[in-house]
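hey so i finally got around to running the thing on that chain from the lab meeting. sorry it took forever, my laptop kept dying and i had to restart like 3 times. anyway pasting the input first so we r on the same page abt which one it is
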Amino acid sequence: MPTVDLESPLGSQSLTAYVAYPAANGPRPGVVALHEVFGLDDVMRRQADRLAAAGYLTIAPDLFSDGGPRRCLVSTFRSMATGRGKAFADIEASRQWLLEQPDCTGKVGVIGFCMGGAFALVTSTTGFDVASANYGMVPRHAEQALAGACPIVASYGRWDGMVGMAGKLERTLTTLGIEHDVKTYPNAGHSFLNDAPNGPVPLRPLMKVLKVGPEPTAAADAWRRIEAFFAKHLA
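ok and heres what got predicted. didnt touch it at all, straight out
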């Protein structure tokens, strides 16, 4: 698998990332892809591959590089809540890696899923040109956290446990005057953009009951919106 080691002095001691390269040569925009709570698994790598197929040099940092989900999950969520810490340093290191590539145009977006969707929102003010948050938690003090954010496209499922996130995000971005496209899919739940079930196998029957997992129809429309929004802002 195409992986790279990144320097992140204030982040993970051994930060690694998956890189997906577009087939076409020449300058292309970059995208930082942020994984779900289950980590940088094959489902998340295929999300990066899909972005590369759409023409983006894509890097997916492993935010659990220093010990996997069991050792890093609590500290990563703490970082999300406080707005500082290793995860933010790792995301910035990934953005800088893209900017340093001779075949990157200098335009860089960020996309995240689940936990990564929340990070995509809170890093939308840190130099990215566009952000995509997919079923990500909206910051508690949203107007303060998202002031000055780049354009945002966001997707949520009606059956997701995080009720109200889409409405809160829509209201916040409208108030702040930030260009956005926020949509809720009535037949989808959490992780509906995934192309296969993931997470611990013993939990999958429960996840299915809770409508956590793929919903192809909603996913196809969400990807159409994401790709159109990214094409507009990363061209």
